[in-house]
Amino acid sequence: MSIFFIVHEMLWSFTVAEELFCVCLQSTRYNYSSDEKFGLIEVLAMIKSLQVLMLRMEAVFMDAIRRSIYAQLQDFVQVQHLLMILYSTLPR
C-alpha cells in the first residue's frame, strides 16, 4: 500500500466527516427550537461526564468483573461439573 493511497483515504474520510458535520449542524440549526438545543446540549454533557466517571472507576469495574467471572467459573467447576460427573457415573 503506497503512502499516496493512505493520505488519499485520510483526506477522503476527513471530507466525508466534514460534510456530515455540516449536515448535522444545519439540521440542528433549522429543525430544533432553542429549548430543544439546550436539552440536547444537556444530554451530551451528561454523557461526557458519565464517560469521565467511568474512566475514573475503570479499575474498580475491572476488579468487580474479574471477581464475578472467577466466582462463576468456580461455581461451574466445583458444583455444576461435579453434578454432571456424579450423574454420569450412576449405575443404569
Structural commentary:
With 92 residues, the chain is mostly helical. It has two domains: 1-56; 58-92. 90% of the residues lie in helices and 0% in strands. The chain is built from three helices and no strands. It has helices spanning 3-31, 34-56, 58-88. The longest helix is centred in the C-terminal third of the chain and has 31 residues, at 58-88.
What's the structural blueprint in terms of helices and strands?
Elements: H1 3-31, H2 34-56, H3 58-88
By DSSP, the count of extended strands is 0
Estimate nothing, just give the exact number of structural domains.
Answer: 2
- Category from helices, strands and their pairing: mainly alpha
User: How many strands, which pairing sense, and closed or not: the largest β-sheet?
Assistant: none
Principal-axes shape call: elongated
Which regions contain 5 or more consecutive residues with pLDDT less than 50?
Answer: none
Mean pLDDT: 81
What portion of residues is helical?
Answer: over 70%
Termini separation comes to 65 Å
Q: What amount of the residues lies in strands?
A: under 5%
Give Rg in angstroms.
27 Å
**N-to-C series of helices and strands:** HHH
**Number of helices in the DSSP assignment:** 3
Structure characteristics:
92 residues; mainly alpha
How is this structure best summarized?
By secondary structure, the chain is an all-alpha fold.
